Amino acid sequence: MLIGFFALILNPGFENGQLDRFSSPPGWNFYVIRSFAKGELVSDAHSGKFAFLMRTRESSSPLMYSENGKGFLQSDVFPVEKGKKLNLSVWVKGDGRAMLQIIWWERYDEERATPCQHQQDSSEPIQCKGEWEEIRLEVMPPPEATKAYIRLVGEDGDIIYDDVEVK
Ligand SMILES: [Ca+2]
Q: Cα of 24 to ligand 1 centre, how many Å?
């Protein structure tokens, strides 16, 4: 048993329930940066029964060459411990480009959201392949950060994400 384990990310393996009508799994919010971008749950999982597929290339019409899209899946906000390094990771596969991002907040509640001056850190974008690989990002929170959320960014193709870890 894991004693004292505190899960920062809800639904990190996309096993808890269906997507809503905005392509968001429970515990996450899906955003379209550039159309076309859409999410779905698929059974091609790194572990468990489901993974999140982000599609950013329209494939319905082979005659229409649509611009490649971009989107991201954003976690719920979680508390950040002062002076403690965070290790972020996610497993990806597919044929699109994927990146892991963390957005830092000095304050984030119902009344106000104040970003940190150094607002975000990102992994290098990677070109996904047909096999699972892990994206990692090790970061030190800015001193004034109290909260953060992460983003799974995708563009230029299909990316399947699974087993997000923040610790
Ligand atoms: Ca899973």
A: 15
Structure confidence by residue, pLDDT tens digits, 54-85: 999 876 656 565 668 999 999 999 999 999 99
Cα→Cα distances 58→69, 96, 166, Å: 8, 12, 31
Domains and CATH numbers, the chain: 28-166 (2.60.120.260)
More confident: 99 or 5? 99
Distance 34 CA to ligand 1 centre (A): 26
Pinpoint the alpha helices (H) of 17-139: none
DSSP single-letter state for residue 165: E
CA of 66 to the centre of ligand 1 (A): 30
Mean pLDDT of 143-167: 97
The maximal CA–CA distance of the chain, rounded, in angstroms, is 56
Q: What is the pTM (predicted TM-score) of this model?
A: 0.92
CA of 33 to the centre of ligand 1 (A): 25
